[in-house]
Design a protein that fits this description.
A three-stranded mixed β-sheet has the order 2-1-3. By secondary structure, the chain is mostly helical. β1 (about 10-15) and β2 (about 20-25) form a beta hairpin. It has a domain at about 145-210. The protein has helices spanning about 30-35, 35-45, 45-50, 60-75, 80-85, 85-95, 100-110, 115-125, 130-140, 145, 150-160, 160-175, 185-205; strands at about 10-15, 20-25, 55. This is BTB domain-containing protein.
């Protein structure tokens, strides 16, 4: 019904990053039972209700397609996300924006299996994806020595010092709880990296309050 656009009564218009405009037909009834945001949108005198058009300029068309497929079919297509995890982050953004709880949970589950740990953690923090954030934090903590050498981790302090401090706090807690599980040499290397990052973060962002951010 959705892919054939039979009887559609509203249109998603996607204009993302100056790319060619992409349109998807949809049914108000389906959208309203799936999302309290869409329900409010179509029950009031908002422009989307008056024009029967929902303009999306902050998410790519493929993620909008995946969202609509989920709303109509009840299944999240994983292959596009596995090929390009940024699409998954965009779906997570849409699920949070339109308060589609079950889609958010399914997207979290797919994303937590991917290897882009720092970017996934940042997205989970930004979009209040509680389960995904917990899993990502634990993964980053368990692989701290390796991940702390990546460009993504080094940029985390600039883009999101609050989240970096959260990571470092968890690492400290784990180190205090399980010191017997670390070999001496690895422990020394680990703490050298950790201490450097902690001091650098304190010096660089002392007194600053920066907004959370994630690269597009």
């Amino acid at each position: 019904m959705w892919e054939e656009e039979i009887g559609t009564d509203c249109t998603f218009v996607c204009c993302y990053n100056d790319t060619e405009e992409k349109q998807f037909g949809a049914h108000r009834a389906i959208l309203m039972v799936s999302s309290p945001v869409f329900q409010a949108m179509f029950k009031t005198q908002m422009c989307e209700n008056l024009n029967s058009e929902i303009r999306i300029e902050d998410a790519n068309p493929e993620s909008v397609r995946l969202m609509l497929h989920y709303l109509y079919c009840g299944a999240l297509l994983k292959e596009p996300i596995n090929k390009n995890f940024h699409i998954g982050l965009s779906v997570l953004f849409l699920a949070d924006k339109y308060a589609i709880t079950d889609l958010k949970e399914h997207t979290e589950y797919v994303l937590h299996k991917l290897n882009n740990a720092i970017q996934v953690l940042t997205a989970a923090h930004m979009y209040n994806a509680t389960h995904l954030k917990k899993v990502s934090l634990n993964y980053v903590c368990a692989n701290f020595q390796k991940l702390s050498q990546t460009d993504g981790f080094k940029e985390l302090g600039d883009r999101n010092p609050t989240l970096l401090q959260e990571v470092l706090t968890l690492v400290t807690k784990v180190c205090q709880e399980k010191p017997q599980n670390r070999k001496q040499k690895n422990s020394e290397d680990f703490f050298n990296v950790f201490s450097h990052l902690l001091n650098e973060n304190k010096q660089k962002h002392s007194g600053d309050r920066l907004k959370d951010a994630i690269p597009p």
